[in-house]
Protein backbone atom coordinates (compact mmCIF):
# COMPACT_ATOMS: atom_id res chain seq x y z
CA UNK A 1 0.00 0.00 0.00
CA UNK A 2 2.80 2.34 0.94
CA UNK A 3 4.59 1.53 -2.29
CA UNK A 4 1.46 2.38 -4.30
CA UNK A 5 1.02 5.73 -2.56
CA UNK A 6 4.68 6.50 -3.08
CA UNK A 7 4.39 5.72 -6.80
CA UNK A 8 1.28 7.87 -7.24
CA UNK A 9 2.94 10.74 -5.43
CA UNK A 10 6.04 10.41 -7.59
CA UNK A 11 3.98 10.39 -10.80
CA UNK A 12 2.09 13.46 -9.60
CA UNK A 13 5.29 15.32 -8.92
CA UNK A 14 6.61 14.44 -12.33
CA UNK A 15 3.38 15.48 -14.14
CA UNK A 16 2.86 18.80 -12.32
CA UNK A 17 5.52 20.77 -14.18
CA UNK A 18 4.24 19.45 -17.50
CA UNK A 19 0.72 20.66 -16.76
CA UNK A 20 2.05 24.01 -15.57
CA UNK A 21 3.88 24.50 -18.85
CA UNK A 22 0.89 23.50 -20.99
CA UNK A 23 -1.04 26.81 -20.63
CA UNK A 24 1.78 29.18 -21.41
CA UNK A 25 2.70 27.02 -24.37
CA UNK A 26 -0.35 28.26 -26.31
CA UNK A 27 0.48 31.87 -25.51
CA UNK A 28 4.07 31.36 -26.47
CA UNK A 29 3.03 29.78 -29.74
CA UNK A 30 0.94 32.80 -30.66
CA UNK A 31 3.70 35.14 -29.51
CA UNK A 32 6.07 33.25 -31.74
CA UNK A 33 3.61 33.67 -34.59
CA UNK A 34 3.61 37.41 -33.90
CA UNK A 35 7.36 37.42 -33.92
CA UNK A 36 7.37 35.62 -37.24
CA UNK A 37 5.64 38.60 -38.80
CA UNK A 38 7.86 41.01 -40.59
CA UNK A 39 7.89 44.64 -39.39
CA UNK A 40 6.19 45.62 -42.63
CA UNK A 41 3.33 43.23 -41.95
CA UNK A 42 2.93 44.55 -38.42
CA UNK A 43 2.80 48.13 -39.64
CA UNK A 44 0.28 47.34 -42.38
CA UNK A 45 -1.82 45.26 -40.00
CA UNK A 46 -1.99 48.14 -37.50
CA UNK A 47 -3.28 50.40 -40.24
CA UNK A 48 -6.65 48.63 -40.25
CA UNK A 49 -7.28 48.83 -36.49
CA UNK A 50 -9.30 52.10 -36.48
CA UNK A 51 -11.31 50.88 -39.48
CA UNK A 52 -12.19 47.58 -37.79
CA UNK A 53 -13.10 49.37 -34.58
CA UNK A 54 -15.51 51.57 -36.53
CA UNK A 55 -16.97 48.51 -38.26
CA UNK A 56 -17.57 46.91 -34.86
CA UNK A 57 -19.31 50.05 -33.61
CA UNK A 58 -21.49 50.16 -36.71
CA UNK A 59 -22.44 46.50 -36.32
CA UNK A 60 -24.21 47.37 -33.06
CA UNK A 61 -21.68 46.81 -30.28
CA UNK A 62 -21.76 49.49 -27.60
CA UNK A 63 -19.00 52.05 -27.32
CA UNK A 64 -18.09 50.84 -23.83
CA UNK A 65 -17.66 47.27 -25.06
CA UNK A 66 -15.43 48.33 -27.96
CA UNK A 67 -13.27 50.40 -25.63
CA UNK A 68 -13.04 47.56 -23.11
CA UNK A 69 -11.95 45.14 -25.83
CA UNK A 70 -9.31 47.54 -27.12
CA UNK A 71 -8.10 48.22 -23.58
CA UNK A 72 -7.76 44.50 -22.90
CA UNK A 73 -5.83 43.96 -26.13
CA UNK A 74 -3.55 46.89 -25.40
CA UNK A 75 -2.95 45.75 -21.82
CA UNK A 76 -1.90 42.32 -23.08
CA UNK A 77 0.46 44.04 -25.54
CA UNK A 78 -1.36 42.46 -28.45
CA UNK A 79 -0.07 43.67 -31.80
CA UNK A 80 -2.38 46.25 -33.38
CA UNK A 81 -2.80 43.97 -36.40
CA UNK A 82 -3.98 41.09 -34.21
CA UNK A 83 -6.33 43.41 -32.36
CA UNK A 84 -7.71 44.48 -35.74
CA UNK A 85 -8.34 40.85 -36.70
CA UNK A 86 -10.04 40.25 -33.37
CA UNK A 87 -12.34 43.24 -33.85
CA UNK A 88 -13.05 42.18 -37.43
CA UNK A 89 -14.08 38.72 -36.29
CA UNK A 90 -16.26 40.22 -33.58
CA UNK A 91 -17.93 42.55 -36.08
CA UNK A 92 -18.71 39.65 -38.43
CA UNK A 93 -20.08 37.53 -35.60
CA UNK A 94 -22.19 40.44 -34.34
CA UNK A 95 -23.66 40.94 -37.79
CA UNK A 96 -24.55 37.24 -37.96
CA UNK A 97 -25.74 36.54 -34.41
CA UNK A 98 -26.18 39.92 -32.71
CA UNK A 99 -24.07 41.46 -29.96
CA UNK A 100 -23.10 39.64 -26.77
CA UNK A 101 -23.16 41.10 -23.29
CA UNK A 102 -19.81 42.07 -21.76
CA UNK A 103 -17.84 41.69 -24.95
CA UNK A 104 -14.88 43.50 -23.38
CA UNK A 105 -14.82 41.26 -20.33
CA UNK A 106 -15.05 38.19 -22.56
CA UNK A 107 -12.05 39.31 -24.64
CA UNK A 108 -10.14 40.08 -21.45
CA UNK A 109 -10.87 36.61 -20.08
CA UNK A 110 -9.82 34.88 -23.29
CA UNK A 111 -6.61 36.90 -23.51
CA UNK A 112 -5.89 36.06 -19.88
CA UNK A 113 -6.42 32.39 -20.75
CA UNK A 114 -3.69 32.78 -23.35
CA UNK A 115 -5.79 32.60 -26.51
CA UNK A 116 -4.45 34.47 -29.49
CA UNK A 117 -5.00 34.66 -33.23
CA UNK A 118 -7.23 31.97 -34.72
CA UNK A 119 -8.10 30.41 -31.37
CA UNK A 120 -9.30 33.74 -30.07
CA UNK A 121 -11.27 34.38 -33.26
CA UNK A 122 -12.92 30.95 -32.98
CA UNK A 123 -13.80 31.59 -29.33
CA UNK A 124 -15.42 34.91 -30.25
CA UNK A 125 -17.42 33.26 -33.02
CA UNK A 126 -18.64 30.53 -30.68
CA UNK A 127 -19.57 33.02 -27.98
CA UNK A 128 -21.63 35.06 -30.43
CA UNK A 129 -23.31 31.95 -31.82
CA UNK A 130 -24.21 30.79 -28.32
CA UNK A 131 -25.16 34.04 -26.59
CA UNK A 132 -25.70 36.55 -29.38
CA UNK A 133 -28.96 38.37 -28.79
CA UNK A 134 -30.35 39.38 -32.09
CA UNK A 135 -30.64 38.83 -35.78
CA UNK A 136 -29.69 35.20 -36.21
CA UNK A 137 -32.00 33.92 -33.49
CA UNK A 138 -35.14 35.99 -33.89
CA UNK A 139 -35.16 36.31 -37.66
CA UNK A 140 -38.73 36.82 -38.85
CA UNK A 141 -40.23 36.45 -35.40
CA UNK A 142 -40.52 40.06 -34.46
CA UNK A 143 -40.07 43.54 -35.77
CA UNK A 144 -36.72 45.32 -35.65
CA UNK A 145 -35.93 47.95 -33.04
CA UNK A 146 -38.81 49.86 -31.56
CA UNK A 147 -41.57 48.88 -33.96
CA UNK A 148 -43.63 47.19 -31.30
CA UNK A 149 -43.96 43.61 -30.22
CA UNK A 150 -44.59 40.79 -32.65
CA UNK A 151 -47.83 39.99 -30.81
CA UNK A 152 -49.35 43.29 -31.86
CA UNK A 153 -48.87 42.39 -35.50
CA UNK A 154 -50.67 39.10 -35.09
CA UNK A 155 -53.61 40.37 -33.03
CA UNK A 156 -54.05 43.77 -34.60
CA UNK A 157 -56.20 44.56 -37.60
CA UNK A 158 -54.52 43.13 -40.70
CA UNK A 159 -55.06 46.08 -42.99
CA UNK A 160 -54.59 48.92 -40.57
CA UNK A 161 -58.24 49.12 -39.59
CA UNK A 162 -59.27 50.73 -36.35
CA UNK A 163 -59.12 48.62 -33.24
CA UNK A 164 -60.47 50.83 -30.47
CA UNK A 165 -64.11 51.63 -30.95
CA UNK A 166 -63.68 53.82 -33.99
CA UNK A 167 -64.64 51.40 -36.68
CA UNK A 168 -67.60 49.24 -37.52
CA UNK A 169 -68.02 45.65 -36.49
CA UNK A 170 -66.90 44.37 -39.85
CA UNK A 171 -63.63 46.24 -39.52
CA UNK A 172 -62.85 44.96 -36.05
CA UNK A 173 -61.83 41.49 -37.09
CA UNK A 174 -60.78 39.68 -33.93
CA UNK A 175 -62.88 39.02 -30.85
CA UNK A 176 -60.45 41.07 -28.78
CA UNK A 177 -60.93 44.05 -31.06
CA UNK A 178 -64.69 43.75 -30.94
CA UNK A 179 -64.66 43.68 -27.16
CA UNK A 180 -62.52 46.80 -27.09
CA UNK A 181 -64.59 48.55 -29.70
CA UNK A 182 -67.75 48.68 -27.59
CA UNK A 183 -71.36 47.64 -28.12
CA UNK A 184 -71.82 49.33 -31.50
CA UNK A 185 -68.83 47.65 -33.04
CA UNK A 186 -69.91 44.30 -31.64
CA UNK A 187 -72.70 44.21 -34.16
CA UNK A 188 -76.30 43.03 -33.80
CA UNK A 189 -77.30 40.89 -30.83
CA UNK A 190 -78.28 37.26 -31.22
CA UNK A 191 -82.00 38.09 -30.92
CA UNK A 192 -81.77 40.69 -33.64
CA UNK A 193 -79.96 38.26 -35.87
CA UNK A 194 -82.65 35.64 -35.33
CA UNK A 195 -85.32 38.17 -36.13
CA UNK A 196 -83.71 38.83 -39.48
CA UNK A 197 -83.49 35.20 -40.45
CA UNK A 198 -87.02 34.52 -41.80
CA UNK A 199 -86.84 37.47 -44.16
CA UNK A 200 -83.58 36.26 -45.61
CA UNK A 201 -84.93 32.73 -45.87
CA UNK A 202 -88.03 33.99 -47.65
CA UNK A 203 -85.91 36.03 -50.02
CA UNK A 204 -83.90 32.99 -50.89
CA UNK A 205 -86.89 30.66 -51.28
CA UNK A 206 -89.10 32.95 -53.34
CA UNK A 207 -86.66 33.16 -56.20
CA UNK A 208 -87.95 31.56 -59.35
CA UNK A 209 -91.50 31.13 -58.08
CA UNK A 210 -94.76 32.33 -59.47
CA UNK A 211 -96.25 35.49 -57.99
CA UNK A 212 -98.95 33.42 -56.30
CA UNK A 213 -96.42 31.09 -54.68
CA UNK A 214 -94.40 34.12 -53.58
CA UNK A 215 -97.46 35.66 -51.98
CA UNK A 216 -98.20 32.42 -50.15
CA UNK A 217 -94.62 32.17 -48.88
CA UNK A 218 -94.80 35.75 -47.66
CA UNK A 219 -98.04 35.05 -45.81
CA UNK A 220 -96.54 31.92 -44.28
CA UNK A 221 -93.51 33.85 -43.11
CA UNK A 222 -95.66 36.56 -41.59
CA UNK A 223 -97.79 33.98 -39.78
CA UNK A 224 -94.73 32.22 -38.38
CA UNK A 225 -93.40 35.56 -37.15
CA UNK A 226 -96.73 36.34 -35.48
CA UNK A 227 -96.90 32.88 -33.94
CA UNK A 228 -93.73 33.51 -31.96
CA UNK A 229 -94.10 34.49 -28.32
CA UNK A 230 -94.01 38.23 -27.88
CA UNK A 231 -90.74 39.72 -26.83
CA UNK A 232 -90.44 40.84 -23.27
CA UNK A 233 -90.90 44.47 -22.67
CA UNK A 234 -89.03 46.52 -20.16
CA UNK A 235 -90.94 46.91 -16.86
CA UNK A 236 -92.94 50.06 -16.63
CA UNK A 237 -91.34 52.74 -14.62
CA UNK A 238 -93.19 55.37 -12.64
CA UNK A 239 -92.75 58.01 -15.24
CA UNK A 240 -94.20 55.85 -18.02
CA UNK A 241 -97.01 54.65 -15.74
CA UNK A 242 -98.03 58.21 -14.94
CA UNK A 243 -98.00 59.11 -18.58
CA UNK A 244 -100.22 56.22 -19.61
CA UNK A 245 -102.58 56.30 -16.60
CA UNK A 246 -106.26 56.29 -17.54
CA UNK A 247 -108.37 59.11 -16.29
CA UNK A 248 -110.31 58.08 -13.18
CA UNK A 249 -114.02 57.63 -13.47
CA UNK A 250 -114.63 59.90 -10.54
CA UNK A 251 -114.92 63.42 -11.82
CA UNK A 252 -113.05 66.13 -10.02
CA UNK A 253 -114.93 68.66 -7.94
CA UNK A 254 -115.34 71.95 -9.67
CA UNK A 255 -112.93 74.32 -8.09
CA UNK A 256 -115.00 77.41 -8.83
CA UNK A 257 -118.19 76.36 -7.07
CA UNK A 258 -116.74 74.00 -4.53
CA UNK A 259 -119.70 71.69 -5.04
CA UNK A 260 -119.20 68.05 -5.66
CA UNK A 261 -120.06 66.90 -9.13
CA UNK A 262 -122.81 64.44 -9.61
CA UNK A 263 -122.03 60.80 -10.21
CA UNK A 264 -124.63 58.04 -10.74
CA UNK A 265 -124.09 56.80 -7.14
CA UNK A 266 -124.29 60.20 -5.50
CA UNK A 267 -127.37 60.98 -7.57
CA UNK A 268 -129.15 57.88 -6.18
CA UNK A 269 -128.18 58.78 -2.62
CA UNK A 270 -129.47 62.30 -3.11
CA UNK A 271 -132.78 61.08 -4.41
CA UNK A 272 -133.07 58.68 -1.45
CA UNK A 273 -132.35 61.45 1.08
CA UNK A 274 -134.95 63.69 -0.54
CA UNK A 275 -137.55 60.90 -0.43
CA UNK A 276 -136.96 60.10 3.29
CA UNK A 277 -138.00 63.47 4.77
CA UNK A 278 -141.09 63.45 2.60
CA UNK A 279 -142.10 60.03 3.98
CA UNK A 280 -141.30 61.14 7.53
CA UNK A 281 -143.50 64.25 7.05
CA UNK A 282 -146.38 62.10 5.94
CA UNK B 1 -5.95 87.94 -15.79
CA UNK B 2 -4.33 87.91 -19.22
CA UNK B 3 -1.49 85.85 -17.81
CA UNK B 4 -3.97 83.18 -16.79
CA UNK B 5 -6.05 83.25 -19.98
CA UNK B 6 -3.20 83.02 -22.47
CA UNK B 7 -1.87 79.65 -21.27
CA UNK B 8 -5.40 78.29 -21.08
CA UNK B 9 -6.10 79.43 -24.62
CA UNK B 10 -2.86 77.96 -25.87
CA UNK B 11 -3.57 74.68 -24.11
CA UNK B 12 -7.00 74.54 -25.76
CA UNK B 13 -5.53 75.22 -29.19
CA UNK B 14 -2.92 72.52 -28.71
CA UNK B 15 -5.53 70.07 -27.39
CA UNK B 16 -8.01 70.68 -30.21
CA UNK B 17 -5.44 70.84 -32.94
CA UNK B 18 -3.51 67.95 -31.43
CA UNK B 19 -6.00 65.19 -32.19
CA UNK B 20 -6.78 66.60 -35.61
CA UNK B 21 -3.07 66.85 -36.33
CA UNK B 22 -2.52 63.28 -35.19
CA UNK B 23 -5.30 61.98 -37.39
CA UNK B 24 -4.10 64.00 -40.36
CA UNK B 25 -0.59 62.67 -39.89
CA UNK B 26 -1.91 59.12 -39.56
CA UNK B 27 -3.99 59.51 -42.70
CA UNK B 28 -1.00 60.83 -44.62
CA UNK B 29 1.18 57.92 -43.48
CA UNK B 30 -1.56 55.37 -44.13
CA UNK B 31 -2.02 56.62 -47.69
CA UNK B 32 1.68 56.32 -48.32
CA UNK B 33 1.71 52.85 -46.81
CA UNK B 34 -1.10 51.75 -49.07
CA UNK B 35 0.72 53.07 -52.10
CA UNK B 36 3.99 51.38 -51.20
CA UNK B 37 3.38 48.51 -48.77
CA UNK B 38 6.87 47.08 -49.22
CA UNK B 39 8.51 50.27 -47.97
CA UNK B 40 6.53 50.53 -44.74
CA UNK B 41 9.51 50.90 -42.46
CA UNK B 42 11.11 53.54 -44.66
CA UNK B 43 7.90 55.52 -44.79
CA UNK B 44 7.58 55.49 -41.00
CA UNK B 45 11.20 56.49 -40.69
CA UNK B 46 10.59 59.40 -43.03
CA UNK B 47 7.87 60.56 -40.65
CA UNK B 48 10.21 60.05 -37.69
CA UNK B 49 8.14 57.25 -36.26
CA UNK B 50 8.90 53.70 -35.10
CA UNK B 51 6.61 50.68 -35.60
CA UNK B 52 5.69 50.72 -31.90
CA UNK B 53 4.77 54.38 -32.02
CA UNK B 54 2.65 53.72 -35.11
CA UNK B 55 0.81 50.92 -33.34
CA UNK B 56 0.24 53.11 -30.29
CA UNK B 57 -1.15 55.83 -32.55
CA UNK B 58 -3.47 53.34 -34.21
CA UNK B 59 -4.74 52.14 -30.83
CA UNK B 60 -5.34 55.75 -29.78
CA UNK B 61 -7.32 56.55 -32.92
CA UNK B 62 -9.31 53.32 -32.73
CA UNK B 63 -10.25 54.05 -29.12
CA UNK B 64 -11.82 57.42 -29.96
CA UNK B 65 -14.90 57.12 -32.22
CA UNK B 66 -14.57 60.70 -33.51
CA UNK B 67 -10.92 60.24 -34.43
CA UNK B 68 -11.63 56.83 -35.96
CA UNK B 69 -14.37 58.32 -38.10
CA UNK B 70 -12.11 61.15 -39.19
CA UNK B 71 -9.40 58.63 -40.04
CA UNK B 72 -11.82 56.51 -42.07
CA UNK B 73 -13.13 59.53 -43.93
CA UNK B 74 -9.59 60.77 -44.58
CA UNK B 75 -8.59 57.44 -46.11
CA UNK B 76 -11.63 57.39 -48.37
CA UNK B 77 -10.71 60.80 -49.79
CA UNK B 78 -8.23 60.73 -52.63
TrEMBL record, chain A:
Compositional bias of type Basic residues: which residue ranges? Answer: 191-236, 243-253
Task: Give the residue ranges for region: Disordered.
Answer: 128-282
Q: What keyword terms does UniProt attach to this protein? A: Signal
Where is composition skewed (Basic and acidic residues) in this entry? 128-156, 165-180, 265-282
Superkingdom classification of source: Bacteria
- In the UniProt record, the signal sequence range is 1-22
In its UniProt entry, what is this protein called?
Uncharacterized protein
Amino acid sequence: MRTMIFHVFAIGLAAAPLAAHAAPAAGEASERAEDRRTPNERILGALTLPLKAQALRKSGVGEGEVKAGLKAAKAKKLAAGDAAELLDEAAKATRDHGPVENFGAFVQAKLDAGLRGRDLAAAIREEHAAHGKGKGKSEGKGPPEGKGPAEAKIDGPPHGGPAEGKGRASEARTTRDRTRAGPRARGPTTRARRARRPRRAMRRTTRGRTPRARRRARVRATRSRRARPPTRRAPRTRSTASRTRRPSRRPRASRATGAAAETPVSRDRKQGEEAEPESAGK
Amino acid sequence: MIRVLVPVFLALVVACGGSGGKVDQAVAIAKELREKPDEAEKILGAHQMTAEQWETLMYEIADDPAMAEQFEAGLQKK
